[in-house]
Amino acid sequence: MSQELKIFTGNANPALAQEIADYLGVTLGVANVKRFGDGETGIEITESVRGADVFVIQPTCFPTNDNIMELLIMIDALNRASAARITAVVPYYGYARQERKVRAREPITAKLIANLITIAGASRLVAMDLHAPAIQGFFDIPVDHLPAAPILAEYFLQKQLDNVCVVSPDIGGVGRARNFAEFIDARLAIVDKRRPEPNVSEVMHVIGDLKGKDVIMIDDIIDTGGTIVQAAAKLKEKGAIRVFACCTHAVFSENAVENLQNSVIEEVVVTNTIPLAQKIEGSKIRVRSVASLLGESILHVYENRSISKLFAKPVKLTAQGP
After folding, report:
1. Could you give the residue numbers annotated as active site?
2. Is pLDDT above 70 for 87?
3. Inter-residue contact 81 to 50 (CB < 8 Å)
4. Phi and psi at residue 57, in whole multiples of 5°?
5. Which residues, other chains included, contact 53 with Cβ-Cβ below 8 Å and sequence gap of 6+?
């Protein structure tokens, strides 16, 4: 390619960015990210990016607002430094759960963030398992929406479970659960719940036969763990032998790790889109890296190749390098 591939990162998840750079066989670009005394963010790009195809890896996880500002300022700096194309690689898209108006006078913050990323100068967005797939439509630039299903499915296929049923912990996640079930050739069941207020849920019904089955619940986000823990207990009541859980984004706020550890769940499989701030040694939590999937996606974008074929089946990815 005539344009050089460069990868930069902020402070949100530098370990993942380094994994991706190692996978692709490139060196992380050098950028100094600092905080001034009044809380403002300062960024200095210390190498030339003129004419380069630049990818900025920055999940907008906690501290969400700081990480969003780092992303926006870095994109602006690269744009003003004459980068040929800037792709924002946002493994976890913060504010995705504020994608619609539920009550009067509420904002649609996910749309606002999309506007800011575009106005800052991004040419493209790469994201993983957006809470609402419709967020892709908030952007006026191309969006590559990557599922973590191949990574999560590979883990469970290696366990060689028999008589498996995949469960969506709510009606809204049925599409995601069905996609995952197809990867591991399993049946599908659904938990019907209601959410009277944020981070509070009540399980109402379980739709599907779980008796004598190993069950895998899949969601995009585990936040406090309340929904998944409550649903797991209900599934055991309905006859499930073992209950596993998996998700793409381990937000793990409040006492999430403790809640999961004390639940009936056998294992909780998550990815590293968000760095785990809490210690998980000796816990039920298993972490799978998405570096290879993101690395391959970056390579395909760089070479103007299709990304969709990466998700045909859960295979081990091998980088060819740019």
Report:
1. 193
2. yes
3. yes
4. -95, 115
5. 1, 3, 4, 5, 6, 83, 84, 85, 87, 302
